[in-house]
Amino acid sequence: xxxxxxxHAGYGATxxxxxxxxxxxxxxxxxxxxxxxxxxTTTMKAISGMIRPRAGAxxxxxxxxxxxxxxxxxxxxxxxxxxxxxxxxxxxxRDNLLLGAFPRLIGSRPKGDVATDLDRAxxxxxxxxxxxxxxxxxxxxxxxxxxxxxxAIMLRPSVILLDEPSMGxxxxxxxxxxxxxxxxxxxxxxxxxxxxxAAAALDVSDYAYVLENGxxxxxxxxxxxxxxxxxRAAYLGGGH
Length: 240
Ligand code: ATP
Prior knowledge:
alpha/beta, six-stranded mixed β-sheet, four-stranded antiparallel β-sheet, 25% strand
């Protein structure tokens, strides 16, 4: 599981996060909700080591990973599927997926059977299976997003951070991405999710935190936040 305690982070002289605390229990999906610029992506980046926290603590399965380089945090079992699709365009779909498993082979994580995991990832995304020998750079935007998510699974991570997986996708693909998140949830994959579609995010989440100006303003079980008047008025109008 993931525990974040009083996290401060920012860019240059600007502090963006002013003491964020949150928990993602094992087997649960937790969402971060908030307006543009509230600090959701910055929280994800600070957790995964893409930016260095200024204060506070990040515990992954009880281990303090605060301030470690991102590749070390990955080896300890945190997969980050960042905003924007980061696939290796000149490698095939299959090779992109295999690279997802690489950190676990050199880290202390369970090595497991990579070939079986590859089959499982492709079964989750039949579209990727059909295109397994195609260069990732020639996939559509939606397919690249799916590849980025499937690659995260290949790490067999303790926790997955998913930042805006539906960004830039056509509505049908957005539905597919949420179906996929729901399926991972039913398989008890532990996830921290940031999504512009807050209502859909709450539907696939167990718990959620609302960020406002770098602080947690509201938190609670997803079901309860869906019915909360303030949350509905500010975030569930459809535009977010
Ligand atoms: P969005 O939904 O728009 O992505 P967000 O909640 O993810 O919003 P962040 O991307 O975390 O917000 O940004 C929080 C604040 O940090 C914003 O004011 C943004 O301008 C600032 N910021 C983000 N990235 C950088 C950067 N690389 N350098 C300087 N400031 C940044």
